[in-house]
Amino acid sequence: xxxxxxxxxxxxxxxxxxxxxxxxxxxxxxxxxxxxxxxxxxxxxxxxxxxxxxxxxxxxxxxxxxxxxxxxxxxxxxxxxxxxxxxxxxxxxxxxxxxxxxxxxxxxxxxxxxxxxxxxxxxxxxxxxxxxxxxxxxxxxxxxxxxxxxxxxxxxxxxxxxxxxxxxxxxxxxxxxxxxxxxxxxxxxxxxxxxxxxxxxxxxxxxxxxx
Length: 211
Description:
Elements: H1 21-43, H2 53-58, H3 65-86, H4 101-111, H5 114-127, E1 132-138, E2 145-151, H6 160-163, E3 168-174, H7 181-184, H8 188-195, H9 201-209
Helix pairs in contact: 1-3, 4-5
């Protein structure tokens, strides 16, 4: 079946004061919906129309040239945002705090401390020029985790050759201006800093465990 817009797992105002309700409404109902609609339009009538969107973006090279850019941008946006909503939560539902268990061990093995990991992740988010994403991924060879960033709606699922970053994303931060500009204007570092208060580490741990 065609791609569908997932429901938010919380209300638009649930992540306040860190992410405001109007931003969440526009981000989900307008931006994400547009990615879904445009991806479906691009894939309509093709053998990829009913495939899992992650599998579609993993195999962009198999798509015809006249479809590839639209699918890269829009199916990529759909996959990225579908994960983004899930890895956030209000404090009452587990948002904020620190990672624990095997996920924390993997992060500490790669970055020494959780604090240093957050510094490096924030740097990747703040220095991504223009629009894009910062990621924590399980490396493609499964040897550990790594931070990287991608432009536009590229995903690590697309592989290093296409996205400049490979592996399985388990945590992602949207740094397109539409994700923060109403509240933070040009202060992207402030948005990144506040965002840690809504990260749903339990969901990220699930992503890591499913590696």
